[in-house]
Amino acid sequence: MNGAIRLWDVGTGQMLGALLRVSKFAPVVSVAFSPGGSLIVSSSQDQSIRLWDADSGQSLGVVLRDDYYYGGPVAFSPDGSYIVYCIDDTVQILAMLAQVIPAAMIWSPQILIP
């Protein structure tokens, strides 16, 4: 409700220390963990898709900002090399071109279904 993503330990039911703030005014619509669990991707009604470090809770940056995107389902590919999202009845793919240094990630949008 307040634009935050909270991480919970499902075994204990306790909230973990990481608190990710996306926006004060735009709700988070969807989140997904990478296959290895080290990254989180979120989509929000603030017209963005963001990447997060799951351990520290720190933002690694906005990987998509689009005037026509108001959040929706988001997911990682099984190997973690792509982020998939939907916009206007079209599946879109963001390809991670560099994974070694998160601060230097470059993204390339590709259309899967025209």
From TrEMBL:
Alphabetical UniProt keywords: Repeat, WD repeat
InterPro entries, sorted: Quinoprotein_ADH-like_sf (IPR011047), WD40/YVTN_repeat-like_dom_sf (IPR015943), WD40_repeat_CS (IPR019775), WD40_rpt (IPR001680)
WD repeat start-end pairs: 28-62
Gene3D superfamilies per the UniProt record, alphabetical: YVTN repeat-like/Quinoprotein amine dehydrogenase
PROSITE patterns the UniProt entry points to: WD_REPEATS_1 (PS00678), WD_REPEATS_2 (PS50082), WD_REPEATS_REGION (PS50294)
Pfam family, one: WD40
Listed name of the protein: Uncharacterized protein
The species this protein was found in: Serendipita indica (strain DSM 11827)
